[in-house]
Amino acid sequence: MRMPVQPASLRQFVLLSFFMALIPLGVLLWQSHSALSDVSRYAIAEAESSVANVRRAENMQKLVNDIERSVLQFSILKTDALSQLAATHLNNYQQNLGSVCLNLAQPVLCAQQQKQLELLFDSYLHESNEELSPILQKIRQQQVQLTQVIWALLEQRLQQQQVYAEEAQSHLAWQTVALVVLTLLLVLWASARITAPVKMLDTMIRSIGQASHHFPHDKVDGPRELTELGEQLRWLASRLQQLEALRLILLRHASHELKTPLSSIREGCALLSEQLVGPLNAQQMEVVSLLNGSADRLSVLTEQLLDYNKLLQQAKPEFGWHDSHTLLQNCFNDHALSLQQREQKIVLDCQLPRIYTDSMLFRRILDNLINNAQAYGAEGSNVWVNLRQHDKFMLLDVANNGTPIPAELRAKLFEPFQRGKAPRFDAVQGSGLGLSIVADCARLLGGLAEIIDVNYADVCIQVRLPLVEDAV
């Protein structure tokens, strides 16, 4: 009986892909090393030759000056030491001239200079300064010409070296392009072998994040590791559904069970603060004040958890026609005291008299946005509220001055229990649910919430909702 073929492991696919991709890269590395070595050897040889020629040219120029000085001195003083010194300079110059002329294509100039040296060597012992001056001048002029020829040769070799380097670079560039294209083709071929199961895994992961959890029934067909990962994701999806149900139950019961003892704590703190059960000293009043603050904060957090839990359980909005000015003004009236305490003023621009929406969800959006603007906005500044139409959408903008929100944190702030770095200016410490509730409410209404940039405020949160044409 023939055994079924086992799928290859992901490790084998990856190792094979890397090995195939490294072959062209290894060839490219070897070619680059070879080309660099050739250019380096050529450059070193040319540099050594150029430096040697330049040193000879400078030495010969110095020897010409020494020859002229020693010959003129000898013609005046006629001493053996000066005669020997002049002969030494002439011999050194002839040796350098022979070495230089081997590399120069100037046989005529070298022969003329050699002839002048011989003439000077024969005549400096018995000729006068006037008779030696034309010979010395001729030697000096020809040395200047030799120096110019050496520099011209050096420049020519530098140009040749540059051309050689450019040709090597061009050749290496074409090799690089060819090998990179080959590597890319090999990588694409290898990645195509595992792309299909990875896409299937991506579909599974995305389905896990959806509220409906419509998990795909097809199994992953591919390497062993990806197949096993698909089965683990299938188990994880089932487990997450169970945990989500338990989380909702725990959140609902915990929030409700906290309200009764919390109410008792707040009533007890109120009795102590009013000193109905007896007088309190300053330290006791401070403790009661701290208890009052903690109880108020716990009450706000409990209400937010209840609100968030209720929002998670609301599956279908109840749409209807509503007067936009009435919805907005009712919200502003509820927040009037907190806005007045920080000397903030609402600046309203409502261009839609009626809107078709769920009034409870819309009010939750507006309440949280106004609360954020009041808590994080600058004291004494305006809070801009704009309700307008843009294409087929209804835009609700709530903006305030204060600490700008960095671009990299904007999307994260709409996740549950995520808070920004800007400090709150009210007495409540935020829980990180405000913008999350805004985003969830907007999603239930078929829209979305985002933080945008405007030219009239530092922070602006925009909620974009579908617009019914008859609402205008």
Low-confidence stretches: 1-6
CATH architecture of the largest domain: Up-down Bundle
Helical fraction equals: 55-70%
What order do the helices and strands follow?
A: HHHHHHEHHEEHEEHHEE
Describe the structure.
Its EC number is 2.7.13.3. Keywords: ATP-binding, Kinase, Nucleotide-binding, Phosphoprotein, Transferase, Two-component regulatory system. GO terms for molecular function: ATP binding; phosphorelay response regulator activity; phosphorelay sensor kinase activity; protein kinase activator activity. It catalyses: ATP + protein L-histidine = ADP + protein N-phospho-L-histidine. With about 475 residues, this protein is an alpha+beta fold. It folds into three domains: about 10-185, Four Helix Bundle (Hemerythrin (Met), subunit A) (Up-down Bundle), CATH 1.20.120; about 225-310, Helix Hairpins (Orthogonal Bundle), CATH 1.10.287; about 315-470, Heat Shock Protein 90 (2-Layer Sandwich). The protein is built from eleven helices and seven strands. The radius of gyration is 46 Å and the shape is elongated. It starts with 9 loop residues before the first helix and ends in a 6-residue tail after the last strand. Mean pLDDT is about 80; it is low at about 1-5.
Give structural attributes.
single chain; 472 residues; 5-stranded mixed beta sheet; alpha+beta; 9% strand; Heat Shock Protein 90; Sig_transdc_His_kin-like_C; kinase; phosphorelay response regulator activity; 3 domains; Helix Hairpins; disordered N terminus; two-stranded antiparallel sheet; protein kinase activator activity; Four Helix Bundle (Hemerythrin (Met), subunit A); HisK_dim/P_sf
